[in-house]
Amino acid sequence: MQRSTLLRYAAYPTVFGGLAAFVLVWSTLGNSPWPAYGLVAVAGIAVVALLERIQPFEPAWNHDHNDTITDIGHVLVNLGLLSGTAYALHSLAGWLPSMSIWPNHWPIALQILAAGAVMDLGLYLMHRLSHRVPWLWHLHAIHHSSERLYWMNGERRHPLSALLLAGPGLVVVVALGASPLVISSWLTLLSVHLAFQHANLDYSLGPLRRWIGGAELHRWHHKREFEDAQVNYSEYWLVWDHMFGTLFDPPQTLGATDVGLREARFPTSYFGQLTWPFFRR
Ligand SMILES: [Zn+2]
């Protein structure tokens, strides 16, 4: 088998599957998620970045588009926010109001999947709202402003938009009584999945491409024309796009200049992007 074919089909199952196996064993053993989860998430994201160099989907997207420094800022702030949220959940365990109806007796893998499904539905709904409500869109537009798709785009978000996207689902699973370990396990998996979802990597999910939100279908969500980008909103499970009629899976592939926004003068600096939703012209 050629390297290209092997990498194309083995990249996601090997990296994400390996991460999922680690998280499952670690949480079953009852070990502390910190700092292990943070370290494996960073390692998983680094592998995605490395694989992009070996087998890019679009070679032009591996070159700086006057965005690398800004995106490093987004990655540091948003991964910090994610770890801070997970850390706060663990520190506040037992203090947060909860209905205590979560099935804590279920095997940990099922609990992680269940919590993930609730948070994923929350993300889908907030993502759709972010394309519908003008002030939410102005915060979310930073995520769509990138002129290329690569591993850092998963975290290229206004921190306020990140909180609004993930917050409602997170509040629901906490209110239901899911344990901090279950929640942080899913957040760890999601952080690496988001790098894959936006990766400039020529990989495929094979028969699962219409069920798990990988880059193959998600690239269409970043189409430059706003009216064309109202598809494939799901973060992990594409079942939400199936259910709500927003799945789009055409036979052709996107070109190197097909992603981004129509706005030609979108700010490129980190602080320019942070303030753009409030002071845009
Ligand atoms: Zn979007």
Which labels suit this protein?
281 residues, binds zinc ion
Structural class: mainly alpha
Q: What integer is the average pLDDT?
A: 94
Instruction: State the shape.
Output: globular
Number of helices: 10
Number of strands: 0
Radius of gyration: 18 Å
Secondary structure elements and their pairing?
Elements: H1 3-28, H2 36-54, H3 68-91, H4 108-132, H5 134-144, H6 159-176, H7 180-197, H8 215-218, H9 239-244, H10 270-279
Helix pairs in contact: 1-2, 1-7, 2-7, 3-7, 4-5, 4-6, 4-7, 5-10
Bound molecules: zinc ion (ZN).
Zinc ion binds next to α4 and α5.
Task: Provide structural commentary.
It is a single chain. This protein is mainly α. The protein is built from ten helices and no strands. Helix 1 (3-28) runs antiparallel to helix 7 (180-197), helix 4 crosses helix 5 and helix 5 packs antiparallel against helix 10. The mean pLDDT is 94. The structure holds zinc ion. The site of zinc ion has 5 residues, from helix 4 and helix 5.
Structure summary:
The protein is mostly helical and 281 residues long.
